[in-house]
Amino acid sequence: MILIIISFLSVKLMYLNAIQSVYMTWIMVLIAVGLHFFAFIPVHGKIIGILGIVTILNGLIGILAHFPLDMIFVSDGVIKMIFGLIYLKVSPINF
User: Fold this and answer.
1) Cβ atoms < 10 Å from Cβ of 86
2) How far apart are CA 74 and CA 50, in angstroms?
3) Distance linking the first and last C-alpha atoms of the chain
4) How far apart are the C-alpha atoms of 64 and 40, rounded to whole Å?
5) What is the DSSP letter of 93?
6) How many Cβ atoms are within 10 Å of 64's Cβ, its own excluded?
7) d(CA 79, CA 20)
8) 3-state SS, residue 76
9) By three-state DSSP, how is residue 72 classified?
């Protein structure tokens, strides 16, 4: 929750127009989601840390390259689905 509040505050402090503000808010939320994965490293292992890094990089690339939000959302979803499949593969429970 604190990460989401920081995301909104950081966008508010940038003095952006309405379109840029919405764009940056969503990107900062995705980065906050990537940061929150680091709290799960002791429970889920190193793979969740890698997921956090990749998710943060996805958001930063979106900021630097000014990709459309749709493209960033799709790439974020694909990244998380790939990691979900990896988790199913390496899980000790047979699915």
Assistant:
1) 13
2) 19
3) 33
4) 28
5) S
6) 8
7) 24
8) helix
9) helix
pTM of structure = 0.81
- The pLDDT value recorded for residue 78 is 97
**CA nearest neighbour of 38 among 3, 90, 75, 63:** 3
Q: Count CB atoms within 10 A of the CB of residue 79.
A: 16
For the chain of 95 residues, list the mean pLDDT of each consecutive stretch of 10. 66 68 87 93 92 96 92 96 92 72
DSSP assignments along 17-66, one per residue? -HHHHHHHHHHHHHHHHHHHGGGGHHHH-HHHHHHHHHHHHHHHHHHHHT
**The Cα angle at residue 89 between residues 83 and 94, in degrees rounded to 5:** 135
From residue 47, alpha-carbon distances to 30, 40, 41, 81 in Å are 18, 10, 8, 13
